[in-house]
Specification:
This protein is of the alpha/beta class. The protein has eleven helices and nine strands.
Length: 321
């Protein structure tokens, strides 16, 4: 019997995982291979590579799905996990982010998982703590582990990423997921398109090297993956979109629009979904076409690979950035 190949733990070139931009293709493949291994063995014992490590989930924005995913990932690898509720923390009393970093640093955690409403907050924290930082989403900047789990979902379904056509549709301007997926999927050889009203595109879109479509049907034509994004009204100033009903008619994904995509096109959404706004429930719940639940399943395995990579990288470097 041939022994199954087990991808080794990944050693990252940096102490922190702050984004996908600048990540080498080799590191992308290594993280996805290791995550896929974990996905195949989630119900089994895996190497306790984080035993003795302390992971702190520091979430300044609510996201039960992402926080629980990181917590499960850390515990499966043997780590101790502390969840800090910002609503009850000193931050609400006027403490600055740097003050919070100094306080946390005195507790000597090994890895901080940081989610923040301000772009660049994890980067700032990384300059004031000894722990490794994983960006769990910062403002409109990046969400690297979401992009990695999206790529893992695609690769396990299609067997590849290179050569696939991926349409990312909706609120691009406010989406850190769109940006990270562009860097990752584009870096792995996919053709990435942005499909959006002009009012929901970032100002520097011309510098991102991506095809832009303002017509939903044309934008998803012949695409293998149609990834829908939530309208992030909390980040808007109220003038970016028409009514939700009109938005759905123009840019919401339904069965009629989906006919323009490739015959076996799959549907994705990072969640949470606004049903009837950016996606029709019939499409979201179509077990033949929707990968949305599979994305959730891949979250734990992906975050296991990322947490392990940071722990192993810092051990290899002696904890020095």
């Amino acid at each position: 019997m041939t022994k199954t190949h087990i991808p080794p733990a990944v050693i990252l070139p940096s102490k922190h995982l702050l984004g996908i931009e600048g990540m080498s293709q080799m590191t992308m493949h290594q993280l996805l291979d290791r995550a896929s291994y974990f996905a195949d063995h989630l119900q089994e014992d895996v190497p306790q590579t984080l035993k003795g490590q302390t992971i702190v989930n520091l979430f300044f924005e609510n996201s039960t799905r992402t926080r629980v995913s990181f917590e499960l990932a850390a515990k499966k690898l043997g780590a101790s996990v502390l969840n800090i509720s910002v609503a009850g923390s000193s931050v609400k009393k006027g403490e600055t982010l740097v003050d919070t970093a100094t306080t946390l640093n005195a507790m000597h955690p090994d890895i901080l998982v940081v989610r923040h409403h301000a772009s660049g907050a994890p980067q700032l924290l990384s300059q004031h703590v000894d722990a490794a930082i994983i960006n769990a989403g910062d403002g409109r900047h990046e969400h690297p582990t979401q992009a990695l789990l999206d790529a893992l979902t695609i690769k396990r379904r299609f067997g590849r990423i290179e050569g696939l056509r991926v349409a990312i549709c909706g609120d691009i301007a406010n989406s850190r997921v769109a940006r990270s997926n562009l860097y990752l999927l584009g870096g792995l050889g996919a053709e990435v398109r942005f499909v959006s009203p002009s009012t929901l595109l970032p100002p520097a879109i011309g510098d991102m090297g991506v095809s832009i479509y303002h017509d939903m049907t044309e934008g998803i034509r012949d695409c293998d993956i149609v990834m829908m994004l939530r309208l992030q009204t909390e980040r808007m100033e109220g003038r970016e979109t028409p009514s939700q009903h009109e938005y759905f008619n123009l840019f919401g994904l339904d069965a009629e629009k989906l006919e323009a995509a490739a015959p076996k096109a799959m549907i994705m959404h990072p969640g949470p979904m606004n049903r009837g706004v950016e996606i029709d429930s019939e499409i979201a719940d179509d077990h033949e076409r929707s990968l949305i639940q599979k994305q959730v399943e891949m979250g734990v395995a992906t975050r296991m690979a990322c947490l392990e990579a940071l722990a192993m990288s810092n051990q290899a470097s002696g904890g020095v950035s």
